[in-house]
Write a structure and sequence with these properties.
alpha+beta; 2 domains; 4-stranded antiparallel sheet; 7 helices
């Protein structure tokens, strides 16, 4: 971005919101990246020429997406209260979750992923178990499957990791109350895969939702996730940290050369090496390895273990 005055940076020239420009100088916008590339890296005296602006925009967006997937991983945080279906609809820029927590009484309780099935689709069937279709030949579906209803009503068995004689036994949690069947045998030893007393979740990427067990109904969930950096399709808001600016130029240059006819292979390979080395340098710069943090961690090596 262009240089701005201190008053514009701190107070936004008296306009609202005053925090509009806070931290903005460490980022460079997509528009500036495309304009700089068109001015400096293509032309009659450059390897690349006759390049259209839309081509540069396309590869610049792809480079920013790759950075968000692999290097930057700038975390977004979203808090929502669960509805009666006990699900959390994923944001449209969601790539992968970092942490999913239950927010209660000012404390975040990390949740663990449940590898067991907590959702499913279903088809309507008649008394003979034959699938029912509409007049156009499409299969009829209910609003909720039996698996979904069991999850919402607490009808699915779960592992109890609380106090008392039922610790490590399978039971039913209905309205935060646990019920157990008579056990034919006991589980010995801790199942570390599910060793968490907090509620669990499972993610269905095809439907774009996170599903929770019945004890989470009406409670607040905080989702920390990695975004694709595309700002919901608004090109004017897309930006990238300046540490990655030179890498983006190299990424665009390599992508254009790699798809261009008649370019010698050694030129393409040189562009590929430049891209890889600049990405590695940018990762090291943003690794944020601070001596103070290392010192605090190393202090624990001499503590007494009772």
């Amino acid at each position: 971005m262009a240089y701005i005055t201190d008053y514009l940076y701190y107070e936004n020239n008296g306009n609202s919101p005053i925090d509009k420009n806070w931290g903005s100088y460490q980022y460079v916008s997509l528009e500036d990246i495309v304009s700089n590339f068109m001015l400096m890296y293509q032309g009659n005296n450059e390897i690349l020429n006759n390049i259209e602006r839309y081509q540069v925009i396309f590869h610049a967006k792809r480079g920013i997406q790759e950075l968000n997937y692999d290097a930057m991983k700038e975390i977004k945080i979203l808090q929502l209260t669960l509805d009666g279906q006990i699900r959390f609809v994923l944001p449209q820029d969601y790539i992968n979750y970092v942490r999913i927590s239950l927010y209660e009484a000012g404390v975040l309780y990390p949740l663990t992923e449940n590898i067991q099935t907590m959702w499913s689709d279903a088809y309507l069937q008649d008394n003979s178990a034959k699938i029912l279709f509409d007049l156009e030949g499409n299969v009829l579906k209910p609003e909720n499957s039996q698996v979904d209803l069991s999850r919402q009503e607490g009808g699915m068995q779960k592992l109890y990791l609380g106090d008392g004689p039922f610790h490590n036994q399978m039971g039913y949690c209905i309205d935060d109350c646990w019920y157990f069947e008579r056990q034919m045998g006991d589980r010995f030893g801790l199942n570390t895969e599910t060793a968490n007393i907090n509620p669990t979740f499972t993610i269905n990427k095809s439907t774009g939702a996170i599903y929770f067990n019945s004890s989470m109904s009406g409670r607040s969930v905080v989702l920390e996730y990695v975004s694709d950096g595309m700002m919901n399709g608004d090109d004017s808001k897309i930006s990238v940290n300046k540490m990655f600016e030179e890498y983006l130029y190299a990424y665009i240059r390599f992508s254009l050369l790699n798809s261009k006819i008649g370019v010698q292979e050694y030129i393409v390979n040189r562009a590929r090496k430049d891209k890889s080395s600049l990405l590695r340098n940018a990762k090291l710069r943003l690794s944020n390895i601070h001596p103070g943090r290392l010192l605090m961690n190393m202090r624990g090596q001499d503590k007494w273990i009772k």
